[in-house]
């Protein structure tokens, strides 16, 4: 059924690119990323010697944006977030934040520079209360705890109401709120979220996307990896499709949802009809 010509093209021809493919080329990335808040250029990174997971991956985030990263399982989405947060050795390329080179900077240094990271799994201390989890988020500035707790509880009232409850007693969706709240304690300017809606009930999934919009409304720029690709593209300003360790397509969320190749390869046949409702 699948024509060989329909396969993602690894060696892109100079002409005949769709707008989203063109925007993903290094030349366009360099042009478009000039005023970015955070950017990654030509990243090569991986876990095991000799095995590159990210392969010449380019990415940028402008101040105030929500940028979504979608793509098949194993594409390297989590690896990209971990690399931005200094958790994976970078073999080539650079990560910059407001023009400062932060490639491979230590996580606690990045936190003080305003980067927050919420991993996909094991992102709360189950034996600790909500309040203690949030304290862990601001251990570098304990004097600001009360003020920041109130600000975070404004966004997530549940965290204030249930502050003495152990995180292990909460539902998956509630724990995700704790994890996001913890990352917000240091007042980040950039929040990295790895699959925040994964494994949650549909109601909580929706809540996560609404919260992301609200957090973004308080001035926090967001990079969000999502398996719920369509919903993610609906709320994000721009999106990337990551495939085989590189940025294969990038455009506004709306354009990606309407891009025939992206629909066919990554969103499934229902994408167009859902988007038009
Ligand atoms: N800790 C690790 N050690 C070695 N390989 C890993 C590790 N984590 C992920 N990988 C590999 O890196 C590739 C990309 O994984 P990942 O970034 O988790 O993909 P995604 O988040 O897009 O599903 C996969 O082939 C995966 O097997
Ligand atoms: Mg992942």
Describe this entry's structure for a reader.
- This protein has one domain (15-276): 3-Layer(aba) Sandwich (Rossmann fold).
- By secondary structure, it is an alpha/beta fold.
- It has a 6-stranded mixed β-sheet with strand order 6-7-8-3-9-10, sandwiched between helices. The protein has a 4-stranded antiparallel β-sheet with strand order 2-1-4-5.
- It has helices at residues 19-23, 26-32, 77-84, 107-112, 130-136, 145-155, 157-161, 172-184, 202-217, 229-235, 253-258, 260-267, 271-275; strands at 38-45, 54-61, 66-70, 90-97, 100-101, 115-118, 190-194, 221-225, 238-243, 246-252.
- Helix 5 packs parallel to helix 8 (172-184).
- It is globular.
- Mean pLDDT is 91; it is low at 1-12 and 270-277.
- It is built from 13 helices and 10 strands.
- The longest helix is centred in the C-terminal third of the chain and has 16 residues, at 202-217.
- The protein binds adenosine-5'-diphosphate (ADP) and magnesium ion.
| Largest sheet composition | 6 strands, mixed
Structural class: alpha/beta
CATH topology: Rossmann fold
CATH architecture: 3-Layer(aba) Sandwich
Radius of gyration: 19 Å
Beta-strand content estimate: 15-25%
């Amino acid at each position: 059924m699948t024509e060989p010509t329909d396969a993602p093209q690894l060696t892109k021809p100079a002409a005949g690119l769709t707008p989203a493919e063109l925007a993903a080329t290094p030349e366009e990335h360099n042009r478009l990323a000039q005023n970015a808040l955070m950017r990654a250029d030509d990243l090569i990174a991986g876990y095991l010697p000799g095995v590159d997971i990210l392969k010449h991956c380019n990415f940028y985030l402008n101040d105030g944006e929500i940028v979504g990263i979608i793509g098949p399982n194993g594409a390297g989405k989590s690896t990209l977030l971990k690399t931005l947060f200094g958790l994976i050795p970078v073999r080539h390329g650079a990560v910059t934040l407001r023009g400062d080179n932060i490639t491979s900077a230590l996580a606690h240094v990045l936190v003080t520079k305003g980067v927050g990271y919420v991993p996909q799994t094991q992102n709360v201390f189950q034996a600790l209360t909500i309040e203690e989890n949030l304290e862990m988020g601001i251990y570098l500035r304990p004097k600001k705890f009360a003020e920041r707790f109130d600000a975070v509880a404004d966004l997530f009232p549940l965290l204030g109401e249930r502050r003495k409850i152990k995180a292990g007693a909460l539902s998956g969706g509630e724990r995700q709120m704790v994890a996001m709240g913890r990352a917000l304690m240091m007042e980040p300017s950039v929040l990295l979220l790895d699959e925040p809606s994964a494994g949650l009930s549909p109601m909580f999934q929706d809540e996560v996307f609404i919260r992301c919009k609200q957090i973004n409304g308080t001035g926090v720029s967001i990079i969000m990896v999502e398996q719920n690709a369509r919903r993610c593209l609906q709320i994000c300003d721009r999106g990337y499709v990551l495939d085989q360790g590189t940025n294969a397509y990038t455009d506004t969320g709306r354009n990606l949802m309407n891009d025939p190749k992206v629909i066919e390869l990554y969103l499934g046949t229902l994408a167009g009809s859902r988007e038009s409702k």
